[in-house]
Design brief:
CATH class: Alpha Beta
Number of helices: 2
Shape: globular
Number of domains: 1
Largest sheet: 3 strands, antiparallel
Strand order of the largest sheet: 3-4-5
InterPro entries: Sheath_initiator
CATH architecture: Roll
Order of helices and strands: EEHHEEE
Helix content: 10-25%
Protein name: Bacteriophage protein
Length: 118
């Protein structure tokens, strides 16, 4: 698995040639998980069925459905072998859902921490 690295702002890193890529490392899988979580169903014009299902995450009555949808999305990511730990926190004032997960990947035994906001 090969992913272009992202900087602290989430922008692609350019100018370092091969150093700009994560290749066959747990960090590449972690980046793939975040990318998959932030792609919402219907956004990608080549396959509008691909993406995180917003109807199971956003809404007044989704408290019981969003964790299962996010877990399924994480476990469906190429390179993820197990979901070791998972937690989520919804802030109703800012309307942000924060997700924290620890995964193991096919590229190493050490778990990788993933923190993101949807």
């Amino acid at each position: 698995m090969r992913y272009r690295k992202l900087d602290a702002d989430g922008d692609y890193v350019f100018g370092g040639q091969q150093a700009d890529f994560n290749k066959d490392v747990p960090e590449a899988v972690a980046q793939a998980v975040l990318t998959r979580l932030r792609l919402f169903r219907g956004e990608w014009f080549l396959d509008i069925t691909e993406g995180t299902p917003l109807d199971q995450i956003i809404g007044k009555y989704t408290a019981g459905t969003y964790d299962a949808a996010i877990r399924q999305r994480i476990l469906g990511t190429q390179g993820v072998t197990a979901l070791v730990a998972y937690s989520s926190d919804f802030n109703p004032d800012t309307r942000k859902l924060s997700v924290s997960a620890t995964i193991t990947t096919q590229y190493g035994k050490d778990p990788v921490q993933i923190d993101g906001t949807l």
